[in-house]
């Protein structure tokens, strides 16, 4: 086993109202799993109480910053604890997020399209599943083109809307067009291990979409999307091998919003 190399690049805090445990508990699990660091990316506040039931409120943002600073101090010299955000994208939210992201130095900003949120559905669900899936990929592409994000989180999450009716082959032309646009921006995309626990139990994205991303040279960041401490770094070895199977030789992470890379063979050797 080599020295720690990887970061948990996607995890949450209790401020989102659906995660459990203190940041220090998440950092302790990162250390146990052989990770170099952990970047907290809790669900950002949004304007007009948009999806407020599953994220921190605007007035809690400073509390979030302080929580992560406390954990960083507690684990200094052991685990590199950093501050990030998972910010939801939908057309029109860009000015709000631009101001939010500029408030404090962030290390990794995930862009997410959460099709399942009630407020998002109220805006974009028109009763047509195929159209909703196409809208999801259109919004993924727009989020990359906004310049607001480093990485696009769980970028085929929409397959869990109706797993029995998911037909990737039929949707493929729309996915290809979205990935072509994303590739031009240089934005990374995530391989999210929590997909194994969702309605369609496979990582997000699927191996098929991952291969399409590789063909376009889109870099990949691994994240466990941990909402409990025990999930920090969960499934990383499997995710790294999944990347290898898709043709990747490197995996990425972000610090100071700059992309760093690690050889997958070295990353695998570093895990506990």
Low-confidence stretches: none
First-last Cα distance: 7 Å
Examine the coordinates and then state which fold CATH places here, giving the name of the CATH topology of the domain at 83-270: TIM Barrel
- The tally of beta strands, per DSSP, is 10
Order of helices and strands: EHEHEEHEHHEHEHEHEEH
Coarse structural class: alpha/beta
Query: What's the CATH class of the domain at 83-270, please?
Result: Alpha Beta
Strand portion: 15-25%
The CATH homologous superfamily name of the domain at 83-270 equals Metal-dependent hydrolases
Could you describe the largest sheet, including whether it forms a barrel? Answer: 5 strands, parallel
Radius of gyration: 17 Å
The backbone outline, from C-alpha atoms, is globular
What descriptive keywords fit this protein?
single chain, 272 residues, alpha/beta, TIM Barrel, 9 helices, 37% helix
Description:
This protein has 272 residues and is α/β, with parallel strands linked by helices. The protein has a domain at 83-270: TIM Barrel. Helices cover 37% and strands 15% of the residues. The protein has helices at 23-32, 61-74, 94-101, 118-124, 129-145, 168-185, 207-215, 236-245, 264-270; strands at residues 7-8, 37-40, 80-83, 85-88, 109-112, 151-152, 188-192, 220-223, 250-255, 258-263. The strands form 3 sheets. It has a 5-stranded parallel β-sheet with strand order 4-5-6-7-8, with helices on one face. The chain is globular. The N and C termini lie close together (7 Å). The model has no long low-confidence stretch (mean pLDDT 97).
């Amino acid at each position: 086993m080599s020295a720690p190399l990887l970061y948990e690049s996607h995890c949450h805090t209790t401020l989102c109202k659906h995660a459990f445990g203190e940041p220090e508990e998440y950092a302790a699990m990162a250390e146990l799993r052989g990770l170099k660091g952990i970047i907290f990316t809790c669900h950002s506040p949004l304007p007009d109480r948009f999806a407020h039931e599953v994220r921190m409120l605007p007035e809690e943002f400073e509390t979030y910053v302080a929580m992560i600073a406390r954990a960083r101090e507690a684990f200094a010299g052991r685990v590199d604890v950093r501050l990030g955000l998972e910010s939801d994208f939908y057309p029109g939210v860009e000015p709000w997020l631009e101001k939010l992201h500029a408030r404090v130095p962030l290390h990794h900003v995930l862009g997410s399209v959460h099709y399942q949120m009630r407020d998002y559905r109220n805006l974009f669900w028109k009763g047509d599943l195929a159209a909703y899936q196409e809208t999801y990929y259109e919004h993924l592409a727009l989020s990359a083109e906004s310049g607001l994000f480093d990485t696009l989180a769980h970028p085929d999450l929409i397959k869990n809307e109706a797993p029995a009716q998911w037909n990737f082959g039929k949707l493929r032309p729309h996915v290809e067009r979205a990935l072509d646009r994303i590739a031009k921006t240089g934005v990374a995309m995530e391989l999210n291990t929590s997909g194994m626990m969702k309605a369609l139990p496979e990582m997000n994205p699927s191996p098929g979409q991952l291969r399409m991303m590789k063909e376009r040279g889109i870099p990949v960041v691994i994240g466990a999307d941990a909402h409990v401490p025990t999930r920090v770094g969960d499934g990383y070895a499997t995710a790294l091998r999944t990347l290898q199977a898709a043709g990747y030789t490197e995996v990425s992470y972000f610090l100071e919003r700059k992309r760093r890379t690690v050889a997958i063979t070295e990353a695998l050797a570093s895990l506990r």
